[in-house]
Amino acid sequence: MFRYIVKRLIEIIPIIFVVSLLIFFFIHLVPGDPVRLAAGKEATLEEIERVRQELGLDKPLLTQYVNYMQNLLTGNLGHSLKTGLPISDMFENRFSVTMTLTFMSLGWALVLGLLIGTISAVFRNKWPDYVGMLTAISGISLPGFWLGLILIQVFSVTLGWFPTGGVESWKSYVLPSLTLGAGIMSMLARFTRSSLLETLKEDFIRTGRAKGLKESVVVRKHALKNSMIPVVTIAGLQFGFLLGGSVVVETVFSIPGMGRLLIDSIAFRDYPVVQAVILLFSLEFILVNLLVDILYKALNPKIRYDS
Amino acid sequence: MKKASFLRTASVLLFSVALLFGCSSGGGSGSNSGTPAASNGGTTTGAPQKDQMVIAVNENFITMDPQNTGDALSSGVQSAMFEGLLIYDKDLKLMPGLSTEYSVNEDATAYTFKLRQNVKFHDGTPFNAEAVKINFDRMSNKDNNLRAYRNYKYIKSTEVVDEHTVKVTLNQPFSAMINKFTTGIISPAALEKYGKDITKNPVGTGPYKFVEWVQGDHLTVELNPDHWNKGAAKVGKIVYKPVPENGSRVAMLKTGEADVIYPLPEQQVETLNGAEGVKVERTPSTITRYVSINMLKKPFDDPRVRQAINHAVDKDAFIKVVKSGYGAQLESVMSPTIAHYAKQGAYEYNIEKAKQLLKEAGYENGFTTDIWGNTNSDTMKGMQFIQQQLQKVGITVEVKSMEEATLSDEIYGIKSPEEAKMNMWYVSWSSADPDNAMRSLFSSENFPPAGANTAFYKNALVDQSIKEATQSSDQDKQKQLYGVVQENVFKDAPWIFLAVDEILYGKRANVNGVYITPSGGIYVREAAFQ
Question: Bridge-partner residues for B218, per DSSP?
Answer without folding.
Answer: B214
